[in-house]
Specification:
Layout: E1 2-8, H1 15-26, E2 31-36, E3 50-61, H2 64-76, E4 81-86, H3 94-99, E5 102-105, H4 113-131
Parallel strand pairs: 1-2, 1-4, 3-4, 3-5
Helix pairs in contact: 1-4, 2-4
């Protein structure tokens, strides 16, 4: 299953960009990152068997194990792509959030969207490590 991060803004050569690269390189699952301008730009087409996850501070607080279980279930059910959407500074509007299969929150604090991208890359690495029984994740 493809893990596809679609994010607003260009991360470039930054500390956050280095973190994203570090975790993406560790992932054994296929990954694609699509960067869009802060406004406008054309979203990649959503094909069948895609699950849309939007990062949103009002979303579900999901522990790492729960995220791993969800990804594993989607993979086992034949989902081809899990698309993770990171909005610009103002996030997503109500209509956009309504289209999501999952609204995912990294807590009730507001995070800069570039930092959220690094946090997402780490959580995807952690989730796939859990599914592979790799010792990276330590529960409890």
């Amino acid at each position: 299953m493809l893990l596809h991060i679609v994010a607003r803004g260009r991360i470039g050569r930054s500390a956050e960009g280095e973190l994203v690269d570090r975790y993406v390189k560790r992932l054994s699952w296929p990954v694609r990152i699509t960067e869009l301008p802060d406004t406008g730009g054309k979203l990649p087409l959503v094909e069948g068997q895609t699950r849309l996850v939007m990062l949103d501070e009002r979303g579900e607080l999901m522990p790492s194990l729960a995220l791993a279980e969800r990804l594993g279930r989607w993979r086992d059910d034949g989902v081809r792509e899990a698309r993770f959407m990171i909005g610009a500074a103002d996030g997503f509007d109500a209509a956009e959030r309504a289209r999501a299969d999952v609204l995912l929150s990294f807590g009730r604090a507001t995070w800069p969207h570039m930092l959220a991208r690094a946090m997402l890359a780490e959580q995807l690495y952690r989730a796939t490590s859990i599914l592979a029984n790799h010792p990276y994740h330590r529960e409890g």
